[in-house]
Amino acid sequence: MKNILTIDPEIGGQPAKPEFIPDAPVRPQIPYEPEIVPEPEQHPLTQPEELPPRKEGGSTQASVSSLVPKTFNKVPPSAHRLSSHLVFLVLVMAMLSSCVKDHQIPTSQIQILTLSFSPATQSTVFRIQATQLGDQPIIEHGVVFTAYFRGVGNHNQLPTISDNKVVFDNKLILGTNEYAYMKDIIAGRTFFYYRAYAILSDNSVVYANRLSYTIE
Question: For a tag site, which of 105, 136, 179, 212 has the least CB within 10 Å?
Fold first, then answer.
């Protein structure tokens, strides 16, 4: 308990009787104990659930899952093996085809020459020289020609099988082949253009060099 001295001004500044004020009760001290906070439990990370799209203003907004990258489907190993086998087969076939082309023997072509002749009124002997017969069968051979009277222009100097044709009746052989034409080939005409020909089994036509003859 404390004694407090107070002065009352009405008593002439004389000190008043001391007033006793009891001391405040003393609280007992409680010892400090630290608070123990338990550690939070650790949970494995999980993929966020996809939220359904919501409509705002008449348009559908993409869900949150669209922002999360998606994993691509893995190609099974069997597909890789199949593709590698296909590539290998294609390469082998390409190599085989190139080898076949390299070993192909080129086909030989027929080679014939036109030999000169002298037109006659009764019989004319035509001549062809064959230097190579080729691989394809020959179904026809002979001489084609065009003939014109004097004073007629626009001469066709390269006759074909569509023009006049003298067909040999014997088989074409290597060397000189002759055929006697037993008709009047002149018939009053002056200019002659002729060349040998051969028709092959595929209907292709081979022509030889062209010669000309003028009757004076």
Answer: 105
Rounded CA gap, 88 and 98, in Å? Answer: 16
What are 17-38's pLDDT values in tens digits? Answer: 555 555 556 566 666 566 666 6
Return the HEC string of 46-113.
CCCCCCCCCEECCEECCCHHHHCCCCCCCCCHHHHHHHHHHHHHHHHHHHHHHHHHHCCCCCCCCEEE
Instruction: Look up the CATH number of the domain holding residue 134.
Output: 2.60.40.10
Phi, psi of 96 (to 5 degrees): -65, -40
Q: Which domain holds residue 190?
A: 111-214
Domain count across the chain? 1
Euclidean distance between CA atoms 65 and 53, whole angstroms: 10
* CA gap 160, 111 in Å, rounded: 17
Contact call for residues 113 and 208 (beta carbons, < 8 A): yes
Q: What are phi and psi of 103, to 5 degrees?
A: -100, 5
